[in-house]
Amino acid sequence: MSAATRVVVLGGGVGGLEAATALGRRSNISLTLVDRSPVHYWKPSLHEFAAGTMQHDGNCIPFTETAAKFGFSFVQSVPTAVDRATQTVTLENGSTLPYDYLVVALGSRANDFGIPGILEYCRFIDSLNDADTLYSEFRKALQTARAAGQKLSVGIVGGGATGVQLAAELCKAIDEAPGLGASVRKNGLDAVLIETGPRILPAFPEAVSEAASAQLEKLGISVRTSAMVVGADENGFNLKSGEQIPATLRIWAAGVRASDATALFDGLERGRAGQLGVTQTLQTTEDPKIFAIGDCARIDAAPVAPTAQAARQQGQYVGRVLPQVIAGQTPAPFVYNDRGAVVALGDYNGWGMLDANRSFGGGLLSGLFARLIHEGLYRQHQAGIVGLAKTASTTVREHLSPVKPDLGA
User: Fold this and answer.
1) What span, in angstroms and rounded, lies between the C-alpha atoms of 63 and 17?
2) Helix 364-386 / helix 388-400 crossing angle, nearest 10 deg
3) Helix (H) or strand (E) holding 157
4) What global pTM score does this model have?
5) Boundaries of each FAD/NAD(P)-binding domain copy (predicted)?
6) Which helix (H) or strand (E) holds 267?
């Protein structure tokens, strides 16, 4: 009986876990998943963790449980070296993993673009730890400002879905926190959303951008477009125009670049933002033994946006075709099926996009419909991991007993 093919998956985000769960139960594959976190979470929900409006229980899935269910091994660590000649990955914990095939799903982080002060003075929401830290600082800063009889000034840079949704979610947190409420938000929060481009949500139709801007302004969030940040310090953000926007809490949610760990792959093609170049079968252009998926990969022939939707489809694709590659077959190329996009502004409003020219949402019922679709995409992914019963239980519990953020009122 031939030995099982050794497959190592680096990264347990949406794409990595989709690949691992598909491959783990195959008897001819010995699979190991590596991730720095002990739990899997839905990255598009990080802004909710950061605002304290989503709890860990039921929404953070231990990798050990998933590994036992789907038949793979889990190692909590990060890669520190990759030797393509010997086909081994060295981890931070000192262990070395041999592989026959490697799936790189290391994700992405916000791009500071080398702007002075961003790394030193801003908070990011690239991981669950980042989100938890931001929530702690938001809570502390709000308490400090209220004790001093002052407004809390918050500056968020990045008018994409992450920044826009975070701005609304912070408002929701104050509105729903025991002892606070909408009046405290109106009188105690001074928030600014800063976008370099001419409008927020540039991936959506202009009508959605305008409606979302109006909704944020209605919540008391100042939306600044065509405002280029050239620096940050302990007092706030410096704009190219010479203006400084004061912000006690400074959050950077702009730009996307691949995880720094892609630099470990010497000799492989890498783009300006660190993504590994892959073919239309998601194998790296210089090494067919290595697949790359999600935000850390780029198909030059047909670029795909760095979204959870894309990562999920790519993870599922690798789960299907890697056994074919092992068997010496040539798989059909990956084809991305764009199912549109949804943006939800807390419980206030929401919009969806069917394609570049068709959008829906806004208002009481349509906004609710868009927000339900937004949640449904996550619950669909969750159900594939923990099962329909557990997903339904978590969903019902959260709708019947919504999280009340503890902001120390």
Assistant:
1) 9
2) 140
3) strand 152-157
4) 0.93
5) 6-315
6) none
